[in-house]
UniProtKB/TrEMBL annotation:
Protein name per the record: Nucleolar protein,Nop52-domain-containing protein
Single GO cellular component term: preribosome, small subunit precursor
Family: Belongs to the RRP1 family.
Signal peptide bounds: none
UniProt subcellular location: Nucleus
Keywords on record: Nucleus, rRNA processing
Keyword flag Coiled coil: no
Main location: nucleus
Higher taxonomy: Eukaryota, Fungi, Dikarya, Basidiomycota, Agaricomycotina
InterPro entries found in the cross-reference section: RRP1
Region annotated Disordered, chain positions: 286-312
Organism: Mycena belliarum
Entry's Gene Ontology BP terms: rRNA processing
Amino acid sequence: MTGTPLAKYLASNDKKTRDKAIKSLSVFLSDDSQEPISKPDMNKLWKGIFYCFWMSDKPLVQQALATDLAELLLTINSVPSALAFLSGFWETTVREWSGIDRLRIDKYYMLVRRFVNATFRLLGRAKWDKSACDICNDMLTRQGGPLCPTDIRVPTSLAYHLSDIFVDELEKTMATASEHMPPAPLSTLLAPFFVLAAQTPTSVTYKRIQSELFIPLLSALSSPQSPAHEDQPPQKRMRLDPDLQQQQYPALVSNACFDNPSEGTIKGVVLRKKLLRRLFEIASEPDTRDSSRRKMYALFKDSTDDDAGDEG
């Protein structure tokens, strides 16, 4: 049950039919014996899902449906199949975004937030597999992706929203993760924002990324952590360390690394320096716009000056 028939039921005017279709879709996606969904069928399926959400009304109904739709991503046991489903979400969202009216836009922002969170949980479940992370990054930054710096068809509001919520949702993921969750590879996960910051033609987009993502994260990583509980698992470390509890993004700071989860957690101040060095390297690349280069160098200098002042 896929493709056109299910898409038609998902977009039905009757809520009971739509609800039944969502349940059928969940069963279908979780069935490992099913053949992978073809690209044309995936497009039809996602158009149906998009309009299923379009017709949802009342805040509680919208919230529940947004959660149910995002959870579909985690019912798929195969990571490649889950990523194909996620790709369908982003392609459809970007394509349909300009047609969303002001009365519906907030619920679609919520849907994007739910999918970002589910994506982090999917990648965490896959132990932050680099190839899976790279596929996710590619779908965000390629032509038609929500963080593509060169595609003028992509609404800038999506990039703004992703900048606003990205680290918040990663923090939520790490806060609810099991003690066996490997550390989140921040350099890998932030790569799409590094690319967009470097290559965006609009100063407003750069400013949003820096103010809502780079600076808050770098600030959180600069907070000193007590060495007394370093040998404890991240979640227990959070409970035992009062300083960690009071800082921003405590779960993420206590369980993050640069780009290789197998090497274990890196101290926040050390990780901050590595991320700043990566920022400097990207600023130095030939594809980086001159206007962005100056701002990235300035952020690097201001941040390293702050570090030097703290050490002094």
